[in-house]
Amino acid sequence: MGAAKHLWNNFVSMTDITYVIRQGFVACGVYQQNRTMPPAHSIGNPNLSTDVEVLLRQESTAEHSARVANLLSEFILWYPLFFQDIDAFMALKVALNHDIGEAVVGDVLDDGTKAHEFKKPREWAAVKEFYANLPPDKIELALDYHRQFDESNTRLGQMIRMADKVDAVGRLILYEKMGMRGDIYHKNPPSERDEIFAKEIHTGNCTDVWARHLKWLFEKEDFRPQVITVAKDFLAAGLASIGREFFTWW
């Protein structure tokens, strides 16, 4: 029963984050705009819903976490040299569970306000409690990889953190494809950093402002050039898919 109890605890925590709404999209008004047509990739495909209520429902942290883990799995496949001497399974485990602390503290906007930093002690305590359900010989490695992600102080940590952040911008690109755009001026109020970046790049469009946040993060935390290149290429492909050029200010 020992293993079963740990598995159940893990299952409960992952279920809990399906109820945690991604607040950034809500705060910026992404869901307030009416969609005028189904997304291009769903036209003619009976397996993809074009129902307005389904497409405009608020996204959960669990959906984000699944995309981040999938994205990291692709990075491992396409850029294997970045992951030498890394336990790929445990790296994917951490990517999948990187926001597990939100089951306790909720989703707090990462936009330069102090609230995001204030949540970290409680979030880290929740992370340690979650990983305590792993087999004993895996706990320290999971905590080490999660700490690397949290501090962005290694190539692995930066790759997971980058996957986490480009997912948000990538999702906004897909929302734009549906005719839905968020704007930082919908926030009540916008953060100081939001407004600085919006004025600098001459738009409040979330896709652009959040990408500018990402560039700032790369510079502030001294991300490796190779990691930044992967992020830029990914976002450039996404923007090209909706007929947009790469960010001119980058």
Explained architecture:
The protein is 61% helix and 0% strand. About 4% of the residues have low confidence. It has 250 residues and is mainly alpha-helical. Helix 10 runs antiparallel to helix 12.
Would you kindly provide a brief summary of this structure?
This protein is mostly helical and 250 residues long. The protein contains 13 helices and no strands.
How is the main sheet built? none
As residue ranges, the low-confidence spans are 34-44
Q: Element order, helices and strands?
A: HHHHHHHHHHHHH
* Alpha carbon gyration radius: 18 Å
> What is the average of the pLDDT values?
87
Structural class assignment: mainly alpha
**Count of extended strands:** 0
Cα(first) to Cα(last) distance is 54 Å
Total of DSSP H or I helical runs spanning 4+ residues:
13
The helix content is 55-70%
What is the fold's blueprint, element by element?
Layout: H1 2-16, H2 23-27, H3 52-55, H4 61-78, H5 88-96, H6 102-105, H7 114-118, H8 120-131, H9 136-151, H10 155-177, H11 192-201, H12 206-220, H13 225-241
